Amino acid sequence: MSTPAEIIAARVNGLILDSEPVTTSYIDEDEFDDAESTVSSIYSTNRSTPAPSIADESAFPTLGGSSASGPATPVWGPSMKVSTPAVSQAPALSTSASSSRKGSPSPLFKSSTIQQAFSLNAENLVSLSSPELKKLLATIKAETNTKIDTNFSQQARIRSFVVSGKPDDVKQAKRLIVRNLTSPLTKQIYVPSKARAAIIGPGGKNLRPIIDSNSVRIDIDSEVVYQPELAEDSDDEDSCNLVAITIKGDVEGVKAAEASILAIVDGSTKNTIATIAVEEIVKPFAQELCKDVIAANPAIDISIPAFNSLFSNVAISGPRKPVYAAKKEIKRILSEYELKVVVEEVKIPQVKHKFLPIESILEEENVLIKLPTDGSMNVKFLGEKKKIALAKEKARQHTSQYKVEVLEMSKAHKGNLNHVKSVAALLKKKGIFDEIAKTNKVTVNAPDNADLSNDEILSVPIEIIFKNNEDEQTKATRRSIVHTVNKILPSSTLVVEDIDKFLIPRVPETIDEVAAANKVSYVVLGSRITLFADVEEQSNEQDQDDFVESEEPADGSAGLSVVNEALDSLRKFSKDLSTVEIAIPSESQLYFPPSTIDAIVGAVDSQSVKVTRKNNSVSVIGFKSDVATIQKLFAAAIADNKEHGDSFSTTIHIPSFVVPRVIGKSGANLNSIRSDYDVKIDVEGFDGAKADSNDQSAKSEIVITGIKANVEACKAKLQLLSKKLADETIVRLRIEQQFHRRLAGPKFSYVNRLQDKYNVKIRFPSESNGGGADAPKSKDEITIKGASKGVSKAEEELKDLYQYEKENGFKKTIQIPVKAIALVLGKGGSNIKDIADGTGVEFDFHRDDEAEAKLGYAEVELTGSRTALKEATDKINEIVSEQENLIEKTINVDPKHFRALIGTGGQTRREIIENAGGAHLSGPKFNRLINFPAEGSGSDEITVVGDKKIVDKVIEQITKIVEEREAVITEGIEIAKERHGLIIGPAGSVRHALENEFNVRIRVPQQASSSNIIDVTGLPERIEKLRAKLLELTKDEWNRVVEVPTKYHQLVSERGAILKKIETDFHVIVKHGNLTRTASKLNSAAPSSPPESAVGDNGTKFTIITEKEEQDQAENGEGSTIPWRLIGSEEDTSKAAEFIAERLARAQEATSKGFFYSSNPSVFSKIVGSGGSTINQIRAKSNCFIHVPRAKDKYNQFVFLTGSEAALEKAKSQIEAAIKNQ
Questions:
Q1: 773: closest CA among 686, 692, 688?
Q2: What's the pLDDT at 49?
Q3: Dmax of the chain from CA atoms?
């Protein structure tokens, strides 16, 4: 007969399913005997299944029984095995209740009371006599208002209990039975140390309820132990750093407390970051090898370093278990592939290295080309052995297409290396090298400014890179560079070297505006500033093939002087500069690493000081006030370091929800800040759950420890960063993928406008967009990240646009002829994708080979707005029309005309195509339109392939050009040599305009040539029209010319002052033509030095040198003249000419020189008089030429006079009178 406990167990386990009545008789506790309590029961059933035995553990799970596998092991994670200390072995707890068997048939009755059966292992029960047990159970029954039945099985050595009553009462009764009848249990488990704070909670908020509800004691060790054998990921330091937790209490309380703790641990460590160190030999292939793992794990973020990245770690972040599974798989893949990688070395000339297609070969063949770093020719090919041969062949084919020609600039301008380097820097800065390269379709590389600034480098190599069939373009490139360099003469520059090196970075802000206003360019190489005047082109030098010295350009010195004067502000600043040496005590030197110096300097403007660390001191140069500030900060830092060393600590509090972003992906942000400021940063009390909930009231504590200056600077940085991040938000919009292209707009124009307008980042799902918190999580999601206000505005606009697109998602089907399909699609679908991107439509090709063969066309379905559909349809129809109208024609042309039809750098060929309506053609179509036979082939056939209309117009133009060239003649037109500059114009602008207007070629002789014949090549009728234009252009603009001998020019012009008088008194302008520069030099030339005999002992002395004495010192200059060209009315120029002739006659009569010496030059002001009145009277009465020196002149104690001997005597007496009378 079964016991009552067996019956209840059967009921609880759902084994009694019939409807027969069950009668159960229970025995009270007073019927227990000393050996064993017995219960008699009577029940009947018509089921054939036997009732379970009380010894069957499937009916009565054991509380405290020892399992066959030995004692239970405290576990965290799938592989954790921790040795439990020698404590009392407690029974394992298991219960069986009617509510716990999911899927089992329901019991035959339902009641407000329940029955729960469980058992305890006898060997773990406390020793109680039957009366004691009876008394204990009676007490529990009374306290919990329950009915308790118990039985002891000698065979199984277990005591079974059945508790009946209300659910809460049954639960409480069971807890009291277990607590009072079992021995106390001590259990130790290990958890990751980073979960310690989460288990305890702020002020014990999480731990206290676990202790109270389970009546246990919990001790958490403060010591962290490193046990990789217990970790889920032995490579992850966080997983290997564990703390021990000891739980003491009854078996059920310990079990429940352990479950609660592990639940918290699991929650706080549900997301993790793992890294894998990638060997350099495998790194280039990691992205390709891991793409399947990435695709199979969309829930985690896997970052693979690129082959040229500085980083060598795979970073994996996301839920813990998938992260560790992915890590294991990636490690396996990389390890296996590492065994397959071989390295082969190939000797390739260095000049070819830059042409190696490293990225394309890696993408196509999965082979990496690694260039040498030691300057050798040994290039390494890394990859699988079977793939390297093809990769090497592709590399060889690619590099063999290119040649390099080096143009050595250093020999230009007679080897003036500093000038040539400055010119090279200028041509780079102004993009002239790039323009020449673009015009001729080659690549031009010039040295960088660092090499140009290096005085030890004595060459200036200009590399011209071109394809094998581009020799003509190369020659044209060389000629253009040579011509450009020859034009920029040293005489048109001004070199400034007196600006303090510290102030050089301020040069751009000082002179940019004034330089632009005065048409001056400049470059800075080291501490040398070179100013360039933008001068006019003076001659036709395009055909020069080597560097030569050009003629003197027009004078641009005025603009250079203005820019140089603008630098005076920096020269003044140099007076305010100060340099100090700050000694660092030996005991403090350890506390002044670069990061500390940067933190101190950060307190002032970074451009106002420069700090250099030396062995035992710091050198500071800069503005005095800022240098003084830095001195004070260093003194304070030294004092702080004596007090705190590198242990100064401060605490800031930031919102918990921004902590993950402050830390950054894989700790990148925080590690970068730690590195920048060389401090220790600890995040305390960070609650991941609160961070996830965006609870803005929750704060986390950040402790910064280190050198005080660094700590304070780091504190300011973190506060600013957290403030910025606190306002950052991410919005996720669910928008079907089919609308994404239209929302993005043509070439992402709509999205870029929103991003710029609201300063946000908008991301669409993409295989290549990487991870991050703002990465879209599905193909139908778009994210917006940024400041909350901007995100809100962008979200609103994007939703409006989405709604509009939904309402305007029109469809259109286009039929494309089979022969045009390939052209519409393009290589790899490039053409149709360009159309879709450019118009914002979606496309779907319906391809069916059988249907296409039968119908002769394929269909493409377009989706978008009406405007976009029309635009896309027009583009597709244009391609189809082009295919249908494609023709090929040939024309026979004498090969002597090929060069003219191609033009310099292909210019004429491009113009023919553009004039025929082919300007819109893509590169390949444009280049394929006109094909000339290979040079030396002997063929005279030019092939034209393209649209019929364009082809016909091209042939028409070629025919016309050839006919015109057959009729072309060359004639010479005589133009005065001094008028050639008018035909050339600034930078050749006039000549180019004439050539374009009359369609002729004009060749102007070199400046050094004696020829005055200008050769014109073109059609006869055009040459005649040009002749009339040239005669009109070069006619004289002046009425009269007075030729003044060079040796008298300075006297006649009165050092240039007389030109202003002529303009004021006669309304006549004087020009000197191409001798303007010579005239200017004569005007500014210093007077001849006075003889030693002219110096007086004291007071004044007047000395006259006769004509014979003068001839020994004079610079003759016989034979040459300076033209004085007078521009004005006939009457005015006539009067001006008479005035100039009169002064010339006086100069010719001036056969002697006079020197009036005064030991006190201040008396010369009496000679000048008010407004020059006195000296003008002396000049008029004596007919002498008189020059009074300025204070800064070399001979500032002499007044210089020129005239006849008699005139000088008159001037002497008048000068003495002027000094005496005043």
A1: 692
A2: 37
A3: 167
Residue type, 129: S
Residue 70: exposed, middle, or buried by beta-carbon count in 10 A (0-12, 13-18, 19+)? exposed
Within 10 angstroms of residue 342's Cβ, the number of other Cβ atoms is 14
CA atoms within 13 A on the CB side of 63: 26
With beta carbons less than 8 A apart as the criterion, state whether 464 and 440 touch. Answer: no
Other CB atoms within 10 A of residue 501 CB? 10
232 band by pLDDT with thresholds 50, 70 and 90: low
pLDDT in tens, 528-586: 999 998 744 433 444 455 555 554 444 557 788 899 999 998 888 888 888 888 888 88
DSSP assignment letter at 740: H
Per DSSP, what are the bridge partners of residue 1121? 1045
Q: What are phi and psi of 591, to 5 degrees?
A: -100, 20
- Beta strand extents in 656-809 (DSSP E only): 680-684, 699-706, 728-734, 760-763, 781-787
428-483 pLDDT, tens digit per residue, is 999 999 888 888 888 898 999 989 999 888 899 998 888 877 778 888 888 889 88
Q: Please state, in angstroms and rounded to a whole number, the distance separating the CA atoms of residues 835 and 531.
A: 49
Distances in Å between the Cα of 1204 and the Cα atoms of 1088, 1106, 1113, 1147 are 17, 9, 17, 9
Confidence category of residue 695, pLDDT binned at 50, 70, 90: low
- For residue 1210, what are the CA distances in angstroms to 286, 326, 1180, 1203, 1213? 101, 110, 11, 10, 5
**In angstroms, rounded to a whole number, what is the distance separating the alpha carbons of residues 161 and 170?**
11
Amino acid letter for position 258: E
**Which tens digit of pLDDT belongs to each residue from 570-611?**
888 888 888 888 888 887 877 888 888 888 888 888 778 888
What one-character DSSP code corresponds to residue 65?
A: B
DSSP, res 106: P
SS3 86: coil
pLDDT value of residue 1094: 84
For residue 246, pLDDT over 90 is answered with yes
Q: ∠ CA(768), CA(829), CA(738), 5° rounding?
A: 60
In this predicted structure, the answer to whether residue 1077 has a pLDDT above a threshold of 80 is yes
CA distance 460 to 339: 47
Contacts of 239 (CB under 8 A, 6+ apart): 77, 192, 231, 232, 233, 272
Beta carbons of 1017 and 968 less than 8 angstroms apart: yes
464 phi, psi to nearest 5 deg: -115, 115
